[in-house]
Amino acid sequence: MGKPTPIEYADASPEVRAVFDDIMTSRNLKDVNNFWKYLARDPVSLRRTWESVKEVMAPGALDPLVKEMVYLAVSVTNSCGYCIASHSAAAKAGMSEAMFGELMAVVGMANETNRLVNGYRVPIDAAFDR
Amino acid sequence: MGKPTPIEYADASPEVRAVFDDIMTSRNLKDVNNFWKYLARDPVSLRRTWESVKEVMAPGALDPLVKEMVYLAVSVTNSCGYCIASHSAAAKAGMSEAMFGELMAVVGMANETNRLVNGYRVPIDAAFDR
Amino acid sequence: MGKPTPIEYADASPEVRAVFDDIMTSRNLKDVNNFWKYLARDPVSLRRTWESVKEVMAPGALDPLVKEMVYLAVSVTNSCGYCIASHSAAAKAGMSEAMFGELMAVVGMANETNRLVNGYRVPIDAAFDR
Amino acid sequence: MGKPTPIEYADASPEVRAVFDDIMTSRNLKDVNNFWKYLARDPVSLRRTWESVKEVMAPGALDPLVKEMVYLAVSVTNSCGYCIASHSAAAKAGMSEAMFGELMAVVGMANETNRLVNGYRVPIDAAFDR
Amino acid sequence: MGKPTPIEYADASPEVRAVFDDIMTSRNLKDVNNFWKYLARDPVSLRRTWESVKEVMAPGALDPLVKEMVYLAVSVTNSCGYCIASHSAAAKAGMSEAMFGELMAVVGMANETNRLVNGYRVPIDAAFDR
Amino acid sequence: MGKPTPIEYADASPEVRAVFDDIMTSRNLKDVNNFWKYLARDPVSLRRTWESVKEVMAPGALDPLVKEMVYLAVSVTNSCGYCIASHSAAAKAGMSEAMFGELMAVVGMANETNRLVNGYRVPIDAAFDR
Q1: DSSP 8-state secondary structure symbol assigned to residue E15
Q2: Cys staple from E101: which of A37, B79, C42, D17, with CB 3.0 to 4.6 Å?
Q3: Domains detected in chain D
Q4: Which of C105, E127, C63, D8 is nearest to A49 (CA)?
Q5: Are E120 and F39 in contact (CB under 8 A)?
């Protein structure tokens, strides 16, 4: 197969359109993001991924904005440019510049201290292992 | 040099003791964690890292518990066993089992979708890049 | 040194040309990919890397297409854009869109469950450790 | 919350037992692995993860053994000790030592060349981007 | 918040300008790199990060060029394109093409053998653990 | 296949013994490390990996100690416990505790700033891209 290409709504099968419709309704959008248009190449993955995302990112014991920040922290750690861009946008309404700055500071710090722990081969304190 | 070993308070230099004292006072602890005892091998790194951690993890635009959860999310993504254990403990007071479960679900989901984005080579939507 | 630049066949030393010739013959190509043109900056690495790739990716106990899919799975996990593009192309002849979709689904799932294991600190079952 | 602990079948809720039963039936096992016992702390994640794993790892356009090898390749890249142990066991029946050796050789090679590409800043060949 | 944008010297607060001035003086530059202009969005992180970088990258027990090479090795392992570009430039004066080639060879090799160790589940030799 | 197990010299084939002999001679050792004993399960990988390691880690444009430190920096970034232990030991003779402390500080800093670059989406300065 060649380079993956997106599937637009107009060209989508009924199965794919049903997922696109649910995304647009749930998130109050006029079109779905590129992520969903590319994933539509595999309608089974599209459906499963959307259902999981909808369930996982919904309000629950954690606030949706906290979830977006956690998602962003992972994407920054993994160097996923698209994911950083799309979830920065998703967090736009609720995240101030000061919140973003502190979020990045924690992510940077965690990536630094994780490696200090590795290098110094720090054993787990007995108190943490109970 | 051989395998790194920890420095206990009793054996620490005045410079290291000053940092240990500040950690114990700030966090209301009777002893510092292994992380600080190992890092004490390099007193300059010990001081700089503690001062940065204290500043970054303090309450600000983000709640300290949110910061602990973000720290945990990064550590889980990086497979840092010590960091997961110590920051799970740090978050103990404020994080219910339901919150932990949702946190892990978001971390897992982000690691999954980050890779779907890579594999399908999804370009950034124009709307995200403004 | 400045930004690395590629070495074209016309400008290559006899040592580099010998490797380029072997790549083109082995893979039935009219030109080598950018990867080899950049690596040609270090002729020793060029030779060693090509000899290793040729040996590792050859048919053996595993089918070459399976090897290409494993290579792609690692590259997607590591966010290596060039590697994803070049090995998607390499797998072009033998990999249908359905195979690609399932491959990405497994890669995404593995990256997700790897992190759930980390976060829940799951110990290895005795049965797996024999 | 403290260190996560497993939920055994005898102590599980009906909701968790239903998933455990399905895992044991589908895979012809007398007990579920630790992964599922720990994830049972969050019954919603347990159900969603099992349903996804069952769908993703089933025979389809790719052979289940190929899927196990891809899963293992990702886990080795991510340094997930539990995942390597459990999926080596899962692949036990179908994977010879020679297949395992070649699999590791491809995984090692991909992790090496991914970094050579990064360091030499190799641009994507026009032919790969169509 | 939207996409991060840089802060130029002319638009910077006195607090940010003081850091920019120190960077330009310390490194004998007429302008600061994009990294600092973006980080200036969070003046607290800007100051802390610059002070840490200045301390960590200064001559000490290790030569500054060795430090630049180690920084580059980490950035190549993490797929950080900006970091690779800026630290290749930083190492420009002191690193020959032969040194760069050997550096990349070691980085590639380490990323390969790290995964062979994971996959074969190699236990630590008693001699290394003392 | 089950859990990988090591091959001791006494049980090794002539092909494997030849590699073991060369390792012991080259490095002046009485026995080879576990890494080689496990990799001996695949004699072709054993030979190729040893020949590559011998070539890559030899003195050249970079000093062998610098190469060991770079190798360690990558292993710390990748959380490879065995690799950290064995290459700390390899660097033992030439690396003081102060050098180790600075090495870890650079590795930690690079892992931190790599993520700040990702999160702030810093574009490459024109000067770095020439």
Answers
A1: H
A2: C42
A3: 1-58 (1.20.1290.10), 60-130 (1.20.1290.10)
A4: C105
A5: yes
DSSP assigned state of F9: G
What was the pLDDT predicted at E12? 98
The nearest CA of chain A is from the CA of F67 a distance in Å of 16
Q: Do D92 and F2 touch (CB under 8 A)?
A: yes
Show residues of chain F in contact with B42, CB under 8 Å. Answer: 97-98, 100-102, 104-105
Q: What percent of chain B has pLDDT over 70?
A: 99
pLDDT, mean of residues A68-88: 95
Other CB atoms within 10 Å distance of the CB of residue D6? 18
pLDDT band at B69 (very low <50, low <70, confident <90, very high): very high
- If you write DSSP's letter for every residue of B65-104 in order, what string do you get? HHHHHHHHHHHHHTT-HHHHHHHHHHTTTT--HHHHHHHH
How far is the C-alpha of C81 from the C-alpha of F107, rounded, in Å? 24
- Do the Cβ atoms of E104 and C45 come closer than 8 Å? yes
Which residues neighbour C25 within 8 Å (Cβ) at sequence distance 6 or greater?
Answer: none
Q: How close B81 comes to chain E (CA, Å)?
A: 15
Q: ∠E115-D34-A53 over CA atoms, to 5°?
A: 75
User: What is the C-alpha to C-alpha distance for residues C52 and F49, in angstroms, rounded to an integer?
Assistant: 9
Chain D residues whose beta carbon lies within 8 Å of the beta carbon of residue F79: 79
CA atoms C46, C48, C50, C51: torsion sign: positive
User: d(Cα B63, Cα B54) in Å, to the nearest integer?
Assistant: 14
For D53-95, write each residue's pLDDT tens digit. 999 999 999 999 999 999 999 999 999 999 999 988 877 778 9
pLDDT tens string E65-120: 999 999 999 999 999 999 999 988 877 778 999 999 999 999 999 999 999 999 99
Comparing alpha-carbon positions, the chain F residue that sits nearest to A119 is F76
CA distance F2 to chain D (A): 6
Number of H helices, E strands in chain E: 6, 0
- Measure CA C37 to chain center: 16
Contact D86 C128 (CB under 8 A): yes
Q: Write the DSSP string, E27-75.
A: HT-SS--HHHHHHTTSHHHHHHHHHHHHHHHSSSSS-HHHHHHHHHHHH
**Rounded mean pLDDT for each run of 10 residues along chain C, 130 residues in total:** 90 98 95 97 97 96 96 97 90 87 98 97 90
pLDDT mean over A55-61: 96
Nearest by CB to B3, from F88, F101, F102: name it.
F88
- For residue range A8-54, list pLDDT tens digits in order: 999 999 999 999 999 999 999 999 999 999 999 999 999 999 999 99
Contact call for E44 and B52, based on CB within 8 A: no
- In chain D, what's the furthest Cα-to-Cα distance? 59
Report the C-alpha gap between E130 and F21 in whole angstroms: 26
